[in-house]
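Let's do one together. I've listed all components of the complex below, 968 residues spread over two lines.
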Amino acid sequence: MKLAYWMYAGPAHIGTLRVASSFKNVHAIMHAPLGDDYFNVMRSMLERERDFTAATASIVDRHVLARGSQEKVVDNILRKDKEEHPDLIILTPTCTSSILQEDLQNFVKRASLISDSDVIFADVDHYQVNEIQAADRTLEQVVRYYLEKCYRQEKWDQFLTDTPSANIIGIFTLGFHNQHDCRELRRLLQDLDIEINQIIPEGGSVEDLKNLPKAWFNLIPYREVGLMTAIYLNKEYGMPYISTAPMGAVNMAEWIRQIQKKVNTLTLSSSNKRVDYEPYIDGQTRFVSQAAWFSRSIDCQNLTGKETVVFGDATHAASITKILVREMGIRVSCVGTYCKHDVEWFKDQIQGFCDEILITDDHAKVGDMIAYMEPSAIFGTQMERHIGKRLDIPCGVISAPVHIQNFPLGYRPFLGYEGTNQIADLVYNSFALGMEDHLLDIFGGHDTKEIIDKSLSTDIDLIWNPESRLELSKIPRFAREKVERNTAKFARQKGIETITVEVMYAAKEALAN
Amino acid sequence: MSVKIDETLTVECETGNYHTFCPISCVSWLYQKIEDSFFLVVGTKTCGYFLQNALGVMIFAEPRYAMAELEEGDISAQLNDYEGLKILCIRIRKDRDPSVIIWIGTCTTEIIKMDLEGIAPKLEWEIGIPILVARANGLDYAFTQGEDTVLAAMAHRCPESEFFLRERKETKQNLLTFHSRKKEELLEYANHPSLVLFGSLPSNVASQLSIELKRQSIKVSGWLPAQKYTDLPSLGNGVYVCGINPFLSRTATTLIRREKCQLIGAPFPIGPDGTRAWIEKICPVFGVEPQGLKEREERIWESLKDYLDLVHDKSVFLMGDNLLEVSLARFLIRCGMIVHEIGIPYMDKRYQAAELSLLQDTCIKMCVPIPRIVEKPDNSNQIRRIRELQPDLVITGMAHANPLEARGITTKWSVEFTFAQIHGFTNSKDVLELITRPLRRQKNLEDLGQTILVK
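Okay, and this is what the predicted structure of the assembly comes out as:
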């Protein structure tokens, strides 16, 4: 039992439902008590979805508790089959109903004998995995199911497409800026003359999954969801995959070079049509993306050495950290992720880019760390945005979990060259603007009112004389608390009881040395 | 009375495949209402994620509620429930120091048969903070019924009438001003047995209703729940109680059976007609002749005229998810609307008897047929009916609102009625404000022409 106010990743069935509702014409049935179908609300509200979410519940009530579901689940599956004729029905329990340990697999077997739709049981342990892992597994399960089915029916067509082609795996409903990222990737591949074989699961059809192996390689933009599928396809069909996130200019270049390598390996040596993307990378990096120029422009100088904290899912936190450090020259004091299951990779990625690493899914620990570090800006999830609000530190949202404002109508990819522009904007706007910052320093800030004592710490024994209070008020707001605390700390160390302006400056000097 | 209702009002029952909020959502408004409380929801990640998403921004405001998230060890009983809860409650006491901790039992605690009611008294004695247990789970209840389970549990903790008075005298003796004011107050009210109202309302709405009764010289001696847990009203034999919300049937039963209170069965004070009927049911119990109610109701209707023109002859379909449906429909029919269907999760014909009979009278008065009432509705059947009927307005949950709008059907989220102030004469306007908002918006966008936005 643990006390929890907030969680970064939802329960497993949410992941399964995200996969199901991303595909076209797939229906999910939850074996769940009344009220557990709030996924429909999330999708309908956050994504502003126009269609009814293809997820319903087979309600677990007192009767089910007493006698078992009996015919109920099967009847509900068959009813959906008749009413909506989906290609596939996925049955999943929720945390709650999985405790009942009903033989749902058996219901699925029975229903699939009668129904026209395919029926599968989402094979996910609700107490071992979270939303993200469950989504990853379910996607793999669906892909495996259809490829194996096709193999059994011997309708096999394993030939690769004539021209280079790719699958994009891992574009999801309720994913962080997924729709925009998808559009950006499409455009990129078009530029590179690579055909898109399939994009799954968002908007994909399960009937087409059998054609997945026709692509030359798979692209996994976010490693949280899709990697399992890619590994499966690699093992069974020898399909190569690229799991680098094309986020940030350096990663982009690496990503495109990997594609080039894959394409050239697979191109028949006789055809002599080896591709060279280097000119494209160069052109895009220098002129299409504004980010490289932006980092060099004098505006960005003000950001040099500013401290930040980054927190989010593994893909976004690692990529953003690298962008901040190597593309913008910003210092990352601490970077963390809540993807505890992918720690090895994460640590490996950010090696040498930050001072500290935090692996936790407890938002209080993240909050404490931020309060301790006092960075100039935070890049995190909606939770960190709130922590930032409380501590008066600006925050840019770079990762799920998200709110409705993270489903913008306008075009806001994080991936690709346009993504680099968006990220540069986000980073730049998150810091107090350079010149403004400077002027605040000179003229003593926007508000010259007396500071209301927030009394966060043990200030009781310290007295600030009027002059020192006035001096303190001249310090820009975002830095004031830090100065106040440092001065107090210094005074306490020296046994000083009354803080004067002199003490303040002595503290500053002591800190500088 | 109830026989007559059965003859004319029919309540159908469907499959129960409908969308509603989990009853644990009641913590969102109850923790705000009961200022010194702390709600601990004992459940799984599924429950936690629901609260986090359903309550949105409130999570960030450091609410006085949390999850006791059950892990695999708890489920398989490898860990000791008592010790687990003890550690959490001690931490809560240290961090927040609440006057009461309310444990919300969920589906999971039901299924694994965690003995919350057995553990609570022992732990209460050990840590020195009252612990209430409310089983607000989705196996048995829908949405607002969560409040019902909490209030029913709280009713047990209300002090006994006489004892309470003595206790109060002792503690309040130093507040002399309070005493003198009390004497003055006594003159304004008729001498009558005490009346306790039950149902959680924002404090200003609660005082509006109290003032409404004060005009009839009836004194409300307490509310269940009060603003603070430590101010719970005294109950007992001879105390009259009256509900202000249609979903409080368990609380009503508890008050009658366990606390020996007398229940005043009345329609609910939603809309001017409901408020008037509510007061008119209460007055005779205390031998008071209601004064000036007719005029007051008429004045309110007069002030609603602009809205009434908008809704007149418009049709409405209530899909049903929060149990306010019958009262709302009754008010809307009185406003001149045509109600196609009243979906409702659960219908307690005894507790809602007066409300149902007012619905019936209203229909006769307005010359419209009594709408069908569908208990435990089936959402996919309902959507089919909505497509056939093409109502002017569908009152529905958020899962269906956007998809219906995209198909050219105007909707209003039902959840808003649970959070908005809709009780009493004063707030009648707010109900219509909510109801007409989508209609007005539609009017504003009329010239755009695109009503169907799906392929």
